[in-house]
Amino acid sequence: MTRPEPTEAPRRQTRQRSAVLALLEQLDGFRTAQDLHALLRERGEAVGLATVYRALQALVDDGLVDVLRGDGEAAYRRCSPVHHHHLVCRSCGRTVEVADPPVERWAARVAAEHGFADVQHQLEVFGTCAACTTAR
Amino acid sequence: MTRPEPTEAPRRQTRQRSAVLALLEQLDGFRTAQDLHALLRERGEAVGLATVYRALQALVDDGLVDVLRGDGEAAYRRCSPVHHHHLVCRSCGRTVEVADPPVERWAARVAAEHGFADVQHQLEVFGTCAACTTAR
DNA sequence: TGTGTTCATGAGAATCATTCTCGCATGACT
DNA sequence: AGTCATGCGAGAATGATTCTCATGAACACA
Ligand SMILES: [Zn+2]
Ligand SMILES: [Zn+2]
Ligand SMILES: [Zn+2]
Ligand SMILES: [Zn+2]
Asked: What keywords is this UniProt entry annotated with (chains A, B) (predicted)?
């Protein structure tokens, strides 16, 4: 998924980056950069919007955060570093990480059958969680 | 995937919409709206950019075209109306439609296990096609 | 702890795809 | 042909993301 990164770029520890990561740790769903920016401001840990974007990008590069590109804006979530997919509530954003070994093999096989190399895949499942279903 | 559409909106046939669909029929990969707009202009079949976007949106609504949201811009491709996924060359855009019954069942099952309803999923496989691999 | 080098920050401008506005043109139907 | 709802196009507007660049802060080292 991520490249081998021969030159591990040094990452400087700052209040802002810590704040972004700490906030993500407390949330259990995907959130947009703008949402996170607003939340940080509410909590007094003000961080510039551009910096939020930069911090998120760095976290994504480091494999600590997953990004989901929906219709308009991208959403970010603190995730485990092992390969997995998501089951996302399209109403409240609540997310469950799910693994599926079969689809991993399937993707590799079907790609090989068609002569494709350097294969990646993306799989996301969307639905309405139990809480949101009963709440309506 | 698509909503029940109680009032099937009538779709008026115009030169522009026909041109967009005809162009898509000739291409075998995903193309952005801007690309299609440029191609139409080159071929003399000039169509306004806003109209290209509107035509594509209509085609998507009608299930004739699939849309792929990459990093920045959305890409469109004439596709068969039956449910399927894509194997896309990340270099030249060439695309193969692939079906995978197992993942359909898996998605439904894992969603149910977690209490999620009204489930959808999106699965795309990216790679470098044989032609692009040898060409480099 | 002081000092210098280097990278990070942030406010606002810039970018860029997409959508909206609105006056005019053109399909569909009688 | 006549009516009328729709579609068209040029340009403005929108909105998320990125860039600019002067200032501030981390970090390595003495
Ligand atoms: Zn929910
Ligand atoms: Zn996977
Ligand atoms: Zn290719
Ligand atoms: Zn499927």
From this structure: Cytoplasm, DNA-binding, Iron, Metal-binding, Repressor, Transcription, Transcription regulation, Zinc
Q: Which of B87, B37, B105, B42 is nearest to A121 (CA)?
A: B87
Residue ranges making up the domain that contains B86? 81-135
Domains contained in chain B, number: 2
| B19 assigned to some structural domain | yes
Question: What's the average model confidence in pLDDT over B115-127?
Answer: 95
Given CB atoms, is B112 within the 8 Å cutoff of chain A?
A: no
pLDDT value of position A100? 87
Residue ending a domain, choose from A36, A62, A79: A79
- More confidently predicted of B5 and B14: B14
Contact B88, B97 (CB under 8 A): no
E strand residue ranges, chain A: 31-32, 65-69, 74-78, 85-89, 95-98, 117-128
- Give pTM, 2 decimals: 0.88
Quote the pLDDT of residue A7: 52
